[in-house]
UniProtKB/TrEMBL annotation:
Protein name in the entry: M56 family metallopeptidase
One term of GO molecular function: metal ion binding
Top-level taxonomy: Bacteria, Bacillati, Actinomycetota, Actinomycetes, Kitasatosporales
UniProt keyword Transport present: no
InterPro entries: Beta-lactam_resp_regulator (IPR052173), Peptidase_M48 (IPR001915)
Pfam families: Peptidase_M48
Transmembrane parts of this sequence: 33-57, 292-315
Domain Peptidase M48: 136-208
Key words of the record: Hydrolase, Membrane, Metal-binding, Metalloprotease, Protease, Transmembrane, Transmembrane helix, Zinc
Length: 316
């Protein structure tokens, strides 16, 4: 049972201590894509701890499953896990972890269905405001996102991700922004669509709403909302310049407090994002990025190694 308790302890540490350290990391703003990777690895490690713990607990509770799991294993591997004779603890742990797994799947499914319904409703509203031409008159559709222009005096721009993604701008944005600023705005929104940021946001929201008391999931949701905007800003800045992207952010934010599809809870980010673009802090050195990437990948790897450690020890 040592591996089971070790996985549970590792999961608790990764759920409580690691998010605080990662949220305070000063390098995250300079490397938002790498920070997103680190957060995903952390969440995957926590889920792996739960999943592997469920497997070991179920094996302890069900001898038939234990025999199946260790079929073909060398002599001494099964005994190294100490699962025999722990049926009581195994049943309790397996029941709790299985309930958490079912709740996670239900929360994720609910979030996906809600997001799909919202997307369909927004597409329907967009089709009412900007209907497509009949099939015989429509131009051949190119690959990539379709640009839609809406009649509105307010400068706005947003994206509708998914199949048949749309990049939407208003006539107010066309009048307010210069050509380069408009290109930066579209590049920002295109970055959201092509990086599948909506998938990441949906998963983070599902975990945070399903387990509101688990700090790593709440922090993951909050950090994803900020980091995806920074990553999209960087994409636009690389193509059209930091100053141009910052000016576009100011122009389209004028009187609204919003840039692109930024949700309401992130309105206060806009001034900070402008300052960040204008300061233009350089990226981290390659060797530093490599070390951070390896450190991020080490968290899920540690969960797997902890699960197989008793078996490996028995073989050595």
């Amino acid at each position: 049972m040592t591996a089971l308790f070790g996985l549970l302890l590792l999961g608790v540490l990764l759920s409580t201590v690691a998010p605080r350290l990662l949220a305070r990391a000063s390098w995250a703003e300079r490397e938002p894509v790498l920070a997103l990777c680190a957060w995903q690895c952390l969440v995957i490690a926590v889920l792996l701890c739960c999943l592997l713990s469920l497997l070991l607990a179920s094996s302890a509770a069900l001898p038939a499953l234990r025999d199946l799991l260790f079929t073909g294993a060398p002599h001494g591997v099964e005994a190294a896990y100490g699962l025999a004779g722990s049926e009581g603890w195994g049943r309790l742990a397996a029941a709790l972890l299985a309930a958490g797994g079912v709740w996670t799947a239900w929360s994720l499914g609910r979030e996906v269905l809600a997001a799909r319904a919202l997307r369909d409703r927004r597409f329907a509203e967009l089709s009412d405001r900007a209907p497509e031409l009949p099939g015989g008159l429509a131009l051949p559709r190119r690959t990539g996102e379709q640009l839609v222009v809406l009649e509105n005096v307010r400068p706005e721009a947003w994206s509708l991700p998914g199949p048949g993604a749309r990049l939407v701008v208003t006539t107010g944005a066309l009048q307010q922004l210069s050509d380069r600023e408009l290109a930066a705005v579209l590049s920002h929104e295109r970055g959201h669509v092509r990086a599948r940021h909506h998938w990441l946001a949906q998963s983070a929201q599902a975990l945070a709403s399903g387990f509101p008391g688990v700090g790593v999931f709440s922090a993951f949701r909050d950090q994803v909302g900020e980091l995806v905007e920074l990553a999209a800003d960087d994409r636009a800045a690389r193509r059209h310049g930091r100053v141009t992207t910052a000016l576009a952010l100011v122009e389209i934010n004028n009187g609204r407090g919003v840039f692109g599809s930024c949700p309401p809870q992130q309105l206060a980010q806009s001034p900070h994002r402008v300052d960040r673009l204008l300061l233009g802090a350089p990226r981290l050195p390659v060797h530093h990025r490599l070390r951070l990437t390896l450190a991020a990948l080490a968290t899920p790897t540690a969960a797997v190694l902890l699960a197989v450690a008793p078996g490996l020890h028995a073989l050595l």
